[in-house]
């Protein structure tokens, strides 16, 4: 599951699974940013459209010039 996208069902945020810390799954927003902890029972797999939107956000963030 590490590296895949998932949804935090508590608030609908999509994040990339970075790993586990204790009993929590760590998610990072598409394009980077601060990770957040999510209980595993509140993580669900994403649908194709959600993954595509998340990946487009990542590409857009990476392509921004300073």
Structure description:
The mean pLDDT is 90. The protein has a five-stranded antiparallel beta sheet with strand order 4-3-2-1-5. The protein is globular and about 35 Å long. It has one helix spanning 48-63; strands spanning 5-8, 13-21, 24-28, 36-38, 43-45. The protein is built from one helix and five strands. A hairpin with a 2-residue loop joins strand 2 (13-21) and strand 3. It has 66 residues and is an alpha+beta fold.
Task: List strands and helices in order, with pairings.
Blueprint (H helix, E strand, L loop, with lengths): L4 E4 L4 E9 L2 E5 L7 E3 L4 E3 L2 H16 L3
Antiparallel strand pairs: 1-2, 1-5, 2-3, 3-4
Content of β-strand: 35-45%
In quaternary terms, these chains amount to single chain
By DSSP, the count of extended strands is 5
**Helix vs. strand class:** alpha+beta
Number of helices: 1
The topology string of helices and strands comes to: EEEEEH
Neighbour order of strands in the largest sheet: 4-3-2-1-5
Gross morphology? globular
Distance between the termini: 32 Å
Level of helix content? 10-25%
Q: Compute the average pLDDT.
A: 90
């Amino acid at each position: 599951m590490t590296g895949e996208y998932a949804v935090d069902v508590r608030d609908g945020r999509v994040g990339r699974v970075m790993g586990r810390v204790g009993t929590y799954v760590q998610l990072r927003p598409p394009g980077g940013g601060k990770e957040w902890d999510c209980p595993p029972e509140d993580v669900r797999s994403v649908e194709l459209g959600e993954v595509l939107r998340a990946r487009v956000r990542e590409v857009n963030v990476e392509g921004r010039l300073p």
